[in-house]
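Customer escalation, tier 2.

The customer says the design service returned an amino acid string that "doesn't look like it belongs to this structure." They asked us to rerun it and document both sides in this ticket. The original C-alpha cells are below, unchanged.
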C-alpha cells in the first residue's frame, strides 16, 4: 500500500477519535473515511490494536519532530529550550494522545496500547516499527533531554559543561510536563523557564 494511503487511514482514525471514544471507533468507518476497503485497512494494520499502536507512534513522532524544530530555532540556548518547553505544552494541550503519552494518564476515551513491544507478523515496515516498544513518559524526558544536549552542546563541548547542560535540559522538559499536568495560573511557561534556568546554566 502507498504510504499516503496509510497516512489517510491514520488521519481518519485520529478524526474519528476526536469525535467519539476509541471503543466506539469502528474499523469499517475508518476505512470508509479514508476511501479504502476494510480489507486494505486490516492488511495495513492487522487489527484495531495495530491501528492504535500506529496512531500513537505517529503522534509520538510528530511531537519529537516539533522538538527538533524548536531546537533548530536560530536563537541562544535559553530561547531554544524555552521554545521546546512551549512546544511541549501546546502539543499536549492540542493533542490528547500526546498528552497521554507525556503524562502516562490514558483516559477512557483513548486507546491504551501496551508500551512494550508486541509480536509482529506484519509485512509492512512502518507497522513493524509501530509494533515495537512505544515511548513511556520517562522515555520522552530522556529523548528530549538527550536531543537538546546534542544540539546545544555541539561538537567539541567540554564534558563537565555537558553534564550541567543535561541537568538544565532535563529541568526544562520536566517543567514543561508539570505545566501540561497543571497549567500555570499566572505568567506563562516561558517565564517559568527563564526563572528556573540561571543565565549561566545554558
Amino acid at each position: 500500500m502507498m504510504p499516503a494511503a496509510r497516512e489517510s487511514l491514520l488521519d481518519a482514525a485520529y478524526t474519528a477519535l476526536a469525535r467519539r471514544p476509541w471503543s466506539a471507533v469502528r474499523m469499517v468507518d475508518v476505512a470508509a473515511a479514508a476511501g479504502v476497503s476494510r480489507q486494505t485497512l486490516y492488511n495495513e494494520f492487522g487489527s484495531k490494536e495495530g491501528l492504535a499502536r500506529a496512531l500513537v507512534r505517529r503522534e509520538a513522532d510528530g511531537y519529537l519532530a516539533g522538538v527538533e524544530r524548536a531546537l533548530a530555532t536560530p536563537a541562544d540556548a535559553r530561547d531554544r529550550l524555552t521554545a521546546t518547553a512551549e512546544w511541549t505544552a501546546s502539543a499536549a494541550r492540542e493533542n490528547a494522545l500526546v498528552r497521554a503519552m507525556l503524562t502516562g494518564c490514558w483516559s477512557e476515551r483513548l486507546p491504551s496500547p501496551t508500551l512494550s513491544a508486541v509480536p509482529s507478523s506484519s509485512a509492512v515496515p512502518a507497522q513493524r516499527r509501530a509494533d515495537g516498544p512505544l515511548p513511556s513518559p520517562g522515555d520522552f524526558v530522556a529523548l528530549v533531554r538527550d536531543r537538546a544536549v546534542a544540539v546545544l552542546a555541539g561538537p567539541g563541548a567540554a564534558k563537565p559543561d555537558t553534564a550541567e547542560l543535561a541537568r538544565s535540559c532535563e529541568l526544562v522538559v520536566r517543567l514543561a510536563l508539570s505545566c501540561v499536568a497543571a497549567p500555570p495560573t499566572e505568567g506563562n511557561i516561558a517565564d517559568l523557564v527563564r526563572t528556573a534556568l540561571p543565565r549561566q546554566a545554558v
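Tier 2 assessment: The sequence is consistent with the input. The mean pLDDT is 89. The radius of gyration is 19 Å. Sent an explanation to the customer and offered a walkthrough call.
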